Amino acid sequence: MASIVQRIRDYLQTPKGRENVEKAKTMARDPENRQRLRRLMDQVRGHRAHR
User: Fold this and answer.
1) Closest CA to 39 of 29, 27, 31, 25
2) What are the mean pLDDT values of the chain's consecutive 10-residue runs (51 residues total)?
3) Where does residue 39 rank: exposed (0-12), middle (13-18), buried (19+ CB within 10 A)?
4) Three-state secondary structure of 19-30
5) How far apart are the C-alpha atoms of 42 and 24, rounded to whole Å?
6) Phi and psi for 6 in degrees, rounded to 5?
């Protein structure tokens, strides 16, 4: 059986996988999503929230 890493690599080579990668890249460029991620990471790390 293929390892999980190999299965992910195989998926990323499919048309649907490439489409999802592009969608994730687009979402990552959105400043609002960046701020949400920054707040989430601060919570995980135990820092005060940005305002």
Assistant:
1) 31
2) 92 97 95 94 81 57
3) middle
4) HHHHHHHHHHHC
5) 21
6) -65, -40
